[in-house]
Amino acid sequence: MSTKPPTLKQFQKRFPDDDVCLEHIMRVRYGQRFACESCGREAHYYRVKGRRCYECEHCGYQVYPTAGTPFEKTRTPLTDWFFVMFLFTASRNGVAAKEVQRQIGVTYKTAWRMCKEIRTYMGTVDGDRPLGGVRPFSPIVEVDKAFIGGKDRQGQDDKAVVLGMMERHGDVVTRIVAGRHGRHVMPQVTTWVIEGSRVMTDDARVFQHMHKASFTKASITAKKNMCAEKRIRTISKPSGQT
Fold first, then answer.
1. Is the pLDDT score of 229 beyond 70?
2. pLDDT value at 241 more than 50
């Protein structure tokens, strides 16, 4: 089975107009048949002419497939939304609002909103998952904090404390925390690392009581931990996207 992403020509052939896009949203969200919320009977839903909704074949109950999505209450054609999503999936470095404005001919305000909504929704449906695990071959999770930034215009220390949690050869989760102490760090660790996971940290005091949170803890030297801190700094840099 081919894993190559579709070309622009293939994409345009797959989604030529708004009706096809709406049908795709409907079937992806609800499938071909499902139980009606009104009559309770399993039904096929048919498109209502001239509206972005479908109705039950038995009782006429209507479902709006764009409700709760970035396309809700938008006057921008669905083909434009789908094309911008195609740009996001085809780009390695993100998509700027200026590029969307140029590509589909909308105002910058509309392009910026489209990009913001798509990024937000992508983060919701494909957000960070808990790290580690309790199975014999579950990956070890390395945890460390770094100080990102410098001094502000008044010369005061303006560094942010960034906590990084990384599965070896796997996913990374970074979070900005309010401070360097255990009361700031440990709630994030217990939220994003599965209870019982094997966790490796440096010898900082904040990590000395990791076992009390039901983690199997081991320490690594400061020299080895510099690599993890460098990765945190790289991930935490602003992307510069519009």
1. no
2. no
Contact predicate 149/162, CB 8 Å = no
Q: Is residue 112 classed exposed, middle or buried when 0-12, 13-18 and 19+ CB atoms within 10 A define those classes?
A: middle
Distance CA 133, CA 202 (A): 20
Residue 1 is predicted with a pLDDT of: 43
Amino acid at 122: M
The architecture that CATH gives domain 141-234 is 2-Layer Sandwich (3.30)
CA dihedral of 66, 103, 10, 27, whole degrees rounded to 10: 0
Half-sphere exposure of 2 (CA within 13 A, CB side): 4
Which pTM does this prediction carry? 0.55
> Cα separation of 24 and 16, whole Å?
12
Instruction: Quickly count: other Cβ atoms within 10 Å of residue 141's Cβ.
Output: 26
- Domain-wise residue ranges, the chain: 8-125, 141-234
Q: Please tell me the number of Cα atoms within 13 Å of 213 on its side-chain side.
A: 23
Give the helix/strand (H/E) hosting 188. Answer: helix 182-192
